[in-house]
Structures are given as structure tokens and as C-alpha cells.
Amino acid sequence: MLNSIYSKILTLSDQKKRQLAVLIDPDKVDEEGVMRLAELVNRYRVDYVFTGGSILTSEFMSTCLKVLRQTVHVPVIIFPGNTMQVHPEADAILLLSLISGRNPELLIGNHVIAAPALKKSGLEIMSTGYMLIESGKLTSVVYMSNTIPIPSDKSDIASCTAMAGEMLGMRLIYMDSGSGSNRPVPPKMIRHVRSNIRVPLIVGGGIRTTEDAIKSWNAGADIIVVGNAAENEPDFIGKLCESRDHINSVANPEYHKLTR
Ligand code: 1GP
Predict the structure, then answer these.
(1) What percent of the chain lies above the pLDDT cut of 70?
(2) CB-ligand 1 contact for 139 (6 Å cutoff)
(3) Ligand 1 centre and the CA of 184: distance in Å?
(4) For 68, phi and psi rounded to 5 degrees?
């Protein structure tokens, strides 16, 4: 159904349920690795699988998506690194506009090129205001996008950027410190952004411990995204889901005040 995945995100966010997405980079795993991760996703009830990467050197994405579609019971969402990552085998795609940067190709140019393929794909399209946050490391996404990330102590700039994205009609905001970054997006910045927008907020990059995850969720992230740490230490998925289920089961008036 059109919009069914976005509706799921909205419903869970409205119920103040924190959600988890595991990012699978098709360049970093083989078929066996995808199946192993898929089994964990099902066992622990991860909410979403994201897939994509800044550079895809392998042609494995299509196979990876087919395996995921056959095995996981949750939405498979493309998190595209470029216009070539539009695959009809997924359920949905985050149509990212890099609103923290001033690279016209990543704000609108690539979208024009990809529009016919996107329309034909049958994918659920979720427009997403994508914001890179400085992380103390030159990440692939910062280098490849040729943009300057938002300084990690400039919460006001992050909030204004997210507000502008929301007012332009973007249905999700994604704050990313970049895959494999040295530190996650600061909770203070997440809290600031959260209190200024109503659309669901995705946060990822550099989340390596359950403490990092809990801090991000409690600061107001509706969905956190974990890639490297889940690939390197598959047990982490179970621990994260346990933390998610625990914080979702206890009342947190401060969090309720913070979110929509
Ligand atoms: C990057 O948010 C994702 O775009 C995940 O980052 O691989 O560092 O978890 P990590």
C-alpha cells in the first residue's frame, strides 16, 4: 500500500515508541552475511532494514535486496548513496535531499535524473531532509558529497535547517554523523532539533554502544540507525533491541514532553 511504511513510522512515533534500523552496506557483506543479519533482524524484531552506501563497488545490491525481501519480515528501505541505487526489489526509498550542504546536485539535481526510474520503481518514496553533522573525522559521505557538515556545537543551525526541511514538505529528517564516524550526533543537538520539528527524526552514524543508542533515543530520535557496529558485532543487535524494548516499556514524561 502506498505510504504504508511511512504510516508505520508515524504511528510508532506518535505512540512514543523508539525504533531501530539496521543498515546493511552491500559492499561490506556477502550473501551469507546478509542471511545472518536477516535472521537476527527477525529474531529480535528490528523495525527496519536500511541498505545502501556512499560508494558501491560491488554489484551485490540487487542480490542483497532479493535475499532481504525473501528473509526479513520488516520493511526494507533503500538509503541511497547515489542515483544508481534505485532498485524495485526494496519496499521503500529515502529520497534524500542533502539540506545541510550547498551542493545543488544533492539538493535537487540527482533527483531530476532519478525521477523517471523512481516513478517506475513502485517503491514507496519518503522525502527526507538529510543533514550531515561534523564528527571529528572525514567520513566517506562528507568527502563524496563535497559539502561542509554542520558543526556539532551549532544546534541552532541544525534546528533551523531541519525546520526549513520540514516546511519545504520533507516527511522525515535524518541527522547523520556519517558511517563509521568517531562520535554519534550529540544528544544536545538531537534534543534541540526534536523540539523544533514535528516530523519523525532519524539519527545515525557512530552509534557503537547501547548507551549511545539510549542517549539518542532519549534525546528525541524516533529511529536510530546502526551499521558498522551491527556488522562487526552481530550480538549488538540483540542488545539494542533489548534496550529499545525496555525504554519503550517505561513511562518517560520528559521524553513525551519533548516529542510530538
Ligand atoms: C550512516 O547512520 C548510518 O549513514 C550508520 O552509521 O555505520 O556508523 O553505524 P554507522
Answers:
(1) 98
(2) no
(3) 9
(4) -60, -45
